[in-house]
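As a warm-up, study this chain.
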Amino acid sequence: MSVAQPTSPLPKLERFLSSPRHNPTALRLILAAQLRRLRLAAALSPIAAGDVLRCSESKISRLERGEVQLKERDVADLLRLYGADTQEAEEFLSLVRRSNQSGWWHQFEDVLPKWFDKFIGLQEAASVIRTYEVLLVPGLLQTPEYARAVAAAGSQLAQDRKVVDRRVELRLARQELLDYPDAPTLWVVLEENVLHRQVAERQVMYGQLRHLAEMAQRPNIRVQVIPLAAPECVTSGFPITHLRFDPPELPEIVYLEHIRDALYLDKAEETEQYRSILDGLLNSAECPAASLQRIQDSAKRYH
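Now compare it with the structure written out below.
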């Protein structure tokens, strides 16, 4: 079968292949999107692809969104159907094998909830992270002392110091993505309550707010605060994280965390709804400069 070949996936993957830490989630997302492009270039329907793999159309859809693990045999069959040449197929399959390796965060499986595993990989793959917090400073911007207080308070094993230490270690490891050469843009919207809610002793709160102010001045980080007296501001009442990726062909994802579970939304109508909510919250927030001043003033009250 002779079909027009899309651009090789390797240039698209350069950012992730050169990443300081292996991120199988990023690879799977890119490879899945490339499979969809190959299918469309071959003018084939998901039903035709499903016939080759002897699976349903819905499984092909999940595979092309990166929701399921890529199996070498299945991918090889699809590449043959789509008319990929031998060299491209070999390169693609070698990347599939890499996408099935464990991510760096799997070393924390002893304290890592299964539903949170996916979020770490998605967060590292994102080019833009927009997050709204109601009660706590976001994990990516927490100090070790603040993170320890949060981990201890939220753990049923709060008396187990080893468990708390491991959770803090994981949180600090996640923050390293902000120092990557190609770090994502982090855009944070906080309720003012976050600045006043004392989750640890005063000195810890002082250090946390000083750290938040410093991070807010980084070129790839923007922090905006919604004042308690903000007019006509209707909050969602729960945290929201919205992730965008590069290349833009990848679907945006909204992450909603609950006590013992989380939702991952990637349908356009769903992500659009939450993007609109975040836009509304941003309109109620103070500008970055005024927000920075509010954070610095709040820090002084703890000093």
